[in-house]
Design brief:
Layout (H helix, E strand, L loop, with lengths): L2 H5 L5 H20 L4 H10 L8 H10 L6 H4 L2 H15 L6 H8 L10 H12 L8 H10 L1 H18 L6 H19 L1
The protein binds fe (ii) ion (2 copies).
The site of one fe (ii) ion (FE2) has 6 residues, from loops.
Length: about 190
């Protein structure tokens, strides 16, 4: 059974279409930035596999697989699907490639020291074909500049949106943002 058939019954058409598009965008980015295209394709299609789970389903998975979660993660449904998604792919689909699992695990928050595949899934989720949020054109332009430029843009976008809504910012997002600020500083001093 292909990955498409696996995710199809777990979500509505709109989200299924999003996953197909993220997978496509991830493959294009993988080709461009020298990453394994097949891994990008798989991670892309599976990244939101548990997004339509109920809160109880997320909590049950976390208990069942004994996953460490912070208070912020438990109280933020948007963060739960990356955690349970990665656990689903590992424990139920038996995919053991850590890079694929981490790219699902960190696709919402980002984290410092992201691998190329993690960056690709993080960015692909922002620029997939059906995306039409305010700022998507800017994000697409950043992708043309480079992968790190796009990741930094995505982190800024995430933090700005959370600030505007007075929502908490996950520590991994802050640490990743700081990492890029530092990188950019060094780049300018060269
Ligand atoms: Fe997601
Ligand atoms: Fe997504």
């Amino acid at each position: 059974m292909g990955c498409k058939d696996i995710i199809k019954p777990l979500m509505g058409n709109k989200r299924f279409n999003h996953c197909i598009n993220v997978s496509k965008a991830a493959q294009i980015l993988a080709k461009r930035f020298g990453e394994d295209e097949n891994k990008a394709k798989i991670a892309g299609i599976l990244h939101d596999i548990t997004k339509e789970f109920s809160y109880d389903e997320h909590i049950n998975m976390i208990k069942k697989f004994n996953i460490d979660v912070s208070n912020l993660e438990i109280s933020t449904e948007k963060l739960l699907h990356s955690i349970t998604g990665s656990a689903y792919v590992k424990n139920i689909l038996n995919i053991n490639d850590n890079d694929i699992l981490n790219s699902i695990r960190y696709h919402t928050t980002g984290r410092p020291g992201m691998s190329t595949l993690e960056k690709i899934i993080f960015v692909a989720d922002f620029v997939s074909d059906e995306r039409d949020y305010q700022g998507v054109d800017e994000m697409r332009k950043l992708v043309d500049k480079g992968l790190d430029e796009a990741v930094f843009g995505g982190l800024c976008f995430t933090i700005e949106a959370l600030l505007k809504s007075k929502l908490p910012i996950h520590i991994n997002t802050v640490l990743a943002y700081n990492e890029y600020v530092e990188k950019n500083k060094k780049g300018k001093n060269k």
